[in-house]
Design brief:
There is one protein chain. 39% of the residues lie in helices and 4% in strands. The chain has 596 residues and is mainly alpha-helical. The chain has a domain of 105 residues. A two-stranded antiparallel sheet has the order 1-4. Strands 2-3 form a two-stranded antiparallel sheet. Strand 6 and strand 7 form a beta hairpin. Helix 1 packs across helix 2, helix 8 packs across helix 20 and helix 15 packs across helix 17. The longest helix is centred in the first third of the chain and has 28 residues. It is found in: Secreted. One of its GO terms (cellular component) is extracellular region. InterPro entries: Haem_peroxidase_animal (IPR019791), Haem_peroxidase_sf (IPR010255), Haem_peroxidase_sf_animal (IPR037120). It holds the Pfam family An_peroxidase.
Length: 596
């Protein structure tokens, strides 16, 4: 992030020299536009080539034309992030954290206190250090202990169908037996999964995806490669401001685009630090034969000369949306809010001095996310009432009849979608940005992105916008068909505990990778944090819910979803002062915008 901030400021200074008549806002926006193009080019032309095998990279349509424009923009394509990619696939980046800081002297410095010597020392360490092999380890033992339990729990929280369904979605065949996974998972891995799950249809996406061996020439297995490739293809197709697009007014000139395509992460490191030598492929560790460090002055760089006399730009501003409401469901929401206040007054929330409270800052929802969640809860309450009537839940109905009707029930189907229409359905109010985004119509002549991403697609302004819901490749899989996470196996028994999966399938063993540098990890973290954000529920006055108790879903908040500690856990004792021990887990904020 420091490197990118420096690059933005460097570009702005050069542009000011080339065009002294430009106003500060124009300099800022044009430098921002160039920096976004650099990030897109590095991601697709360098980073993805490192992750995906060559065949998958080409088949997904991710290749960058070295000289021409991209003509594949499609306004019907939504570039939003798929739920399975955000929760399952992107999690692999966490496995590349090193067990110890690269440079202890600089690892704890605040960002605004970094000096040139500190950054150079840190970058030098990242360039030559090997990232851990793709596996279950997440940095230090303390950091990795519960990562996988958390990821599996969050996967179930979001209703992801499971590994076998996504394999089938990717054209890798059905998985009736564990032996059907032999093309991608080792015999030892299959044995572990079979012992844990009993049925391949119960295997969680994270567990199965990370057990796959890497596809030829890549880092990921075939399932994760497929999902990630499809996601990034949609991002490119649906982004009206994609840096290679060839239509006015936001396209770069041929000369400008040619300069942008000279950019590599190695060149950014050279021009924004005091380093004198770097390897040309910085996502890979130095190799004396194929990737030897070279002098920075020999690495080609982008020239900003083609930007001389670029005309002024204006910000894009989108229209305001209207709120809709359902009064009866709002009353239920009010009751929940009263309950949250009572929990707060009784002290059943996390203390601001605790480690849990501090860690929760990474998942703190903003006001816009809370408004979306409040609307979603209203719709969920309405859906539950209608579902109970549809499933005929009464004592004189047999369980088999209820299950049969539930199997036919389609929460997102036309039945529920047509129940409440018009102004009876609440919608979240707009988020108010300082510059007035979403308050004025989209400007098709503006070459600049809005800060929120609104108006990227003129026909569907919300496509690709921040604070929009994750997309889904497959229909969600919930226990009750609405929102309760999966609890039972297709064989009838309970699903294995996420904590058991964490310790059994993903042992805490570090395997340093001899090919990938820690720059690869750092850039992956930047992409992960930039494109995904999963806020969790908060209590009264945005307090952090204390969900450590195993009965917290009943005693504290219905959105508590604690992870039980199984007997024989290698770290946690199963009992805590005579009571069962659980690991705190708070469910993600809901985001449904219609009944179902």
């Amino acid at each position: 992030m420091i490197l990118l901030m420096r690059e933005h400021n460097r570009v702005a200074k050069v542009l000011a020299t080339l065009n002294p008549h430009w106003e500060d806002e124009t300099l800022f926006q044009e430098a921002r536009r160039i920096l976004i193009a650099e990030i897109q080019h590095i991601t697709y032309d360098e980073f993805l080539k490192t992750i995906l095998d060559g065949v998958q990279y080409k088949n997904a349509g991710l290749e960058i034309d070295p000289s021409g424009y991209f003509t594949g923009y499609d306004s019907k394509v939504d570039p939003g992030i798929e739920n399975s990619v955000a929760i399952g696939v992107v999690g692999f980046l966490g496995t590349t954290f090193p067990p110890t800081p690269v440079d202890q002297a600089t690892s704890t410095k605040e960002v605004n206190k970094f000096e040139n010597s500190d950054l150079d020392s840190l970058l030098s360490g990242l360039l030559v250090s090997s990232t851990p092999t793709l596996s279950s380890a997440f940095g230090s033992e303390e950091a990795s202990r519960d990562l996988w339990a958390y990821m599996v729990q969050q996967e179930r929280d979001h209703g992801l169908p499971g590994y076998a369904k996504y394999r089938e979605r990717c054209g890798l065949g059905t998985s009736k037996n564990f032996s059907d996974l032999a093309d991608d998972i080792s015999s030892a891995g299959i044995a572990s999964l079979e012992e844990l799950y009993g049925s391949p249809n119960d295997v969680d996406l994270v567990a199965g995806g990370l057990m796959e061996g890497p596809a030829h020439g890549g880092l990921l297995g075939r399932t994760f490669s497929c999902l990630l490739g499809e996601q990034l293809k949609r991002v490119r197709l649906g982004d009206r401001f994609w840096y290679e697009n060839d239509f006015p007014p936001n396209q770069f000139s041929k000369e400008q685009l040619a300069e942008i395509k000279k950019v590599t992460l190695a060149s950014l490191l050279c021009v924004n630090s005091g380093l004198e030598r770097v390897q040309s492929q910085v996502f890979l560790v130095p190799d004396p034969f194929l990737n030897a460090p070279v002098m920075c002055k020999t690495i080609r760089r982008m020239s900003l000369e083609p930007w001389r006399e670029v005309g002024p730009r204006e910000l894009i501003v989108p229209p305001r949306l209207l709120d809709l409401s359902v009064e009866k469901a709002k009353e239920s929401l009010k009751k929940r809010q009263d309950m949250e206040k009572l929990v707060f007054e009784r002290g059943r929330v996390v203390s601001p001095d605790s480690a849990i409270w501090k860690a929760s800052g990474f998942q703190q929802p903003n006001d816009a996310a809370l408004r979306v969640a409040n609307t979603s809860i209203v719709l969920e309450f309405v859906t539950q009432e209608l579902t109970n009537l549809f499933l005929l839940k009464s004592p004189n109905r047999t369980a088999s009849l209820r299950l049969k009707r539930q199997a036919l029930f389609l929460p997102r189907g036309p039945e529920l979608n047509a129940v409440f229409v018009g102004d009876r359905l609440p919608q979240p109010p707009p988020s108010f940005c300082p510059d007035g985004e979403e308050t004025r119509p989209c400007d098709p002549k503006s070459p600049f992105r809005t800060f929120s991403g609104w108006c990227n697609n003129l026909a569907a302004p919300h496509f690709g916008k921040e604070l929009t819901l994750f997309d889904r490749l497959l229909a969600p899989k919930y226990e009750d068909g609405i929102s309760t996470p999966r609890l039972r196996s297709v064989l009838g028994g309970p699903l294995p505990s996420p904590r058991v999966i964490s310790t059994f399938v993903h042992p805490d063993v570090s395997h340093p990778n001899q090919r990938y540098s820690l720059v690869f990890m750092q850039f992956g973290q930047f992409l992960d944090h930039d494109v995904t954000m999963t806020p969790v529920h908060r209590g009264f006055q945005k307090s952090v819910l204390d969900c450590r108790s195993c009965d917290s879903s009943h005693q504290v908040h219905p959105e508590c979803f604690p992870i039980p500690v199984p007997p024989g856990d290698p770290f946690f004792p199963p009992m805590d002062f005579g009571r069962p021990r659980c690991i705190s887990f708070v469910r993600s904020l809901p985001g449904q915008t219609k009944l179902g």
